[in-house]
TrEMBL record:
<feature type="DNA-binding region" description="H-T-H motif">
    <location>
        <begin position="30"/>
        <end position="49"/>
    </location>
</feature>
<feature type="domain" description="HTH tetR-type">
    <location>
        <begin position="7"/>
        <end position="67"/>
    </location>
</feature>
<dbReference type="InterPro" id="IPR036271">
    <property type="entry name" value="Tet_transcr_reg_TetR-rel_C_sf"/>
</dbReference>
<dbReference type="InterPro" id="IPR050109">
    <property type="entry name" value="HTH-type_TetR-like_transc_reg"/>
</dbReference>
<dbReference type="InterPro" id="IPR009057">
    <property type="entry name" value="Homeodomain-like_sf"/>
</dbReference>
<dbReference type="InterPro" id="IPR001647">
    <property type="entry name" value="HTH_TetR"/>
</dbReference>
<dbReference type="Pfam" id="PF00440">
    <property type="entry name" value="TetR_N"/>
</dbReference>
<keyword id="KW-0238">DNA-binding</keyword>
<protein>
    <submittedName>
        <fullName>TetR/AcrR family transcriptional regulator</fullName>
    </submittedName>
</protein>
Amino acid sequence: MTGAPTSDTRERLIAAAADLIAAAPGEEFSLRAVCDAVGVKMPTLYHFFGSKQGLIDAVIEHGFDLYLNEKSSMESSGDPIQDIRAGWDAHVAFGLANPGFYTLMYGKVRPGHSPEAQSRPSEILRALTARAAEQGRLLVPSEQAAAHILVTNIGVTLRQIILAAPDPALSQAVREGAISAITGKGTRANDSLTTAIELAAAQPDVLGKAETQLLIEWLGRLSRVEKLQ
């Protein structure tokens, strides 16, 4: 390849690195192999990324783009707790389908450093726990609830990647344990209303989507009234 580097060249370098990472999850990849795949020299790669870590950071950003594109296609159930469940399952599914990306996104730890792209899915989770807090359904502050869900979700996903074997029973058990820890489900007086909300949200086809969301809103109001009495 000749001529000045272009933004298209940058994207092709990211794609080539992503392909190498996907082909051999957890293994080091060669910058030379990336350049050869695109047909450029090493100075071109350094022009765009400055270093190997700069390229890795760009690949991590690409991984989060893929992850968030999948999450954006998910419809809200109308209930934040049910949406946390769905988000958990989507997180695990993405990690198992993309172990190379996932281990870069969440498994490579540098003390004091968090990839900027990690904040994007975390904001979605914090919005859900904030809604749950507004509905009076959390035992802990919403920020703590979001952190609790995230760290357990990452842990159960990494374990399945390490073992190279899906374990849906483990994932479900850890998921429900984490949700119980932040909601206190099973210890509160208005558990019957909470259960009804989550049952409706989990099976929207029974009543219909619009009717289910209306029911969730009504039950949520009753739950908040009960807490005030």
